[in-house]
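Q: Predict the assembly, please.
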Amino acid sequence: MSRDFENWTDLRDCLIFHADGKDQELGAKRVRMQVENHDLWRPVYHNPDDYLTDIYNLPVFRYQGLYVGMPTVFNHSGNYGVQL
Amino acid sequence: MIRPDRPWEDQYLQVRTGPSWHPDKKAWMLWYTGGAYATSQDGIHWDKPTLGLREHQGSTQNNLMLPVTKYEFTDGSGKEIASVKGDGTIILKVFYDANEPDPARRYKGIGYKGPLCCLRKSQGPASTPPSPPTERVGSYWTPSFQARMNRICFTMRTTASTRPQSSTGGPMADPCTCR
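A: Predicted assembly structure:
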């Protein structure tokens, strides 16, 4: 958070939304459904060991006295073949 | 409802900020990926005004506004997985701050300029070919992304994942470095 756009709070003190265990479970389920459905694009990179769900972004705006957030959830289906 | 119906929208839209309400214009304003701009009176029906600001395929008859940077990436085998170019600047997060007392500062944005933080640290001159990364850090786009616009550093998420390397072979910024 910032009041002047120059000085910001430490992000570690203001985490309000993140992907939890349920998100990981649902994300893996979604990737599996996509892989198994031949009517959909198959992910270019697919490795169940690499499944990972992130909150990609969370746009927030005010409306009718409320804060409305529209989270985007990103499902990793596999890495790019990089050998670590 | 806003849909990707213009040639420069590449069949999909993404947003990085919510719509901003302009109290004087009585309209919602939305900046979305590709540097495009749309307005709406009700949040449901959206207009994409012709701005005449940025050229796309020889024409400025579009709603493109913001500069974009695009990068080239390859996977571990050298296969190109993304190849797009730009001028070194990208601003994805724009909003209107109606509470800002200075009218000239009410449109605000967060962006970045310069090399993306990638998996590996700088290992030599620009001519050095990319080598396999040695660290497993980061998220999809950047390991621990910090960027700045003017004097603002903005940190995005950090998660364990991998990231493709830049195919340019240029030195990479150290992860977690704000330049």
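The first strand of chain B starts at residue 20 and ends at 22. Confidence is low (pLDDT under 50) at residues 114-179 of chain B.
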